[in-house]
Amino acid sequence: MKRTAIMGRLMLAGAILVLLGACAPVQPERQRYFWPPGTSEPRIEYIDFYEKAEDARRDAPARISEAILGRERPRPLFVRPVDVASDGQGRFYVSDAESRRVHVFDLNRFGTGVLQDEKGQDFGFRLPHGLAVDARGRVYVSDIHAHQIHVFGADGRQLRSLGQGHLDNPAGLAVSADGETVWVAEPQQHRLTRLDAEGNVKQRLGRRGSRPGGFNYPLDVALDAQGNLYVLDSLNARIQVFDPQGSFLRQFGERGTALGSFQIPKAVAVDPEGHVYVTDARAHRFVIFDLEGRHLMTIGAKHSASGGVAPGGFLLPGGIDADAAGGIYVVDGLNRMVHRFQYLNDAWLAAHPIRPGEAVAR
């Protein structure tokens, strides 16, 4: 009897879906949000937000059948999200310090999951923090309390661990496209460490100080297309840039409230187009520079999502990532969600052209 009832509901759902596809009115387009606002030549677009497993299915055809057949009430996934990393192909990862998990969002398959051990069980992180993805889709996770970096395959299962016995409370990290170089920030030691693919220490960089090459709690690192290293030197409120061998090149940023300055910077990312993105937690925004450190744009303002999500509204933003496809992902810490933006490159505009009037809608 139970099986018959289920089959009956499925048949009913299928019939309704056919009718909806045949006669449902065209749904209105969602409002588009661009930066800089009020210009006919936008550079950044707000795409979406993610706080529940249901959000990965927002554009899935199955959403109608779920509504018909019923589903559990969605619950927020994140408790204390820290960092985010995207593979540039529709999958991104979010570390959560409170639940001690790394969540996986697969927007192509409209699903979510968590990183796992070799047996397919939830991986037992002690305190997951920094994230990075290489060109083969391998995921790197710094585990602060385990003092090492865990590496996972594109299937989400652990491959190996790096840096055992060599790292002290590792935080932000950056990985070369081929996975042969791993840079990791060790804030409490005021230094960076470079590992090879096997986890051998190849270089130590920095010591506590405010001069070029000195650090005061470096929290995050990023690599540009030439292999140059961008270091978020948090308590010095600046970005320092080093060449692939670790030689100092330049620095930019300062503490303050003016555009292009930082109050409490948290994370850094570099995109393939040559832009540097820095989150500023206390200012509730992220700041965009060119590779030389010239200020280009600032996006964000203080906003609590308890009254609804606002594009560009943050409450203590943290981790940030800019992927090969131009996607920009920002952890919104106290709002317990991730926001997705898009740099308007040629490929994106070809697939999502801006119609007359849309770019100056707000």
Automatic annotation (TrEMBL):
InterPro entries from the xrefs?
Answer: 6-blade_b-propeller_TolB-like, NHL_repeat, TRIM-NHL_E3_ligases
Q: Where are the NHL repeats?
A: 78-108, 117-155, 202-245, 249-292
Q: Please report a single Pfam family linked to this protein.
A: NHL
Query: Which SUPFAM superfamilies does UniProt cross-reference here?
Result: NHL repeat, Thermostable phytase (3-phytase)
Report keywords, A-Z.
Repeat
Q: What is this protein called?
A: 6-bladed beta-propeller
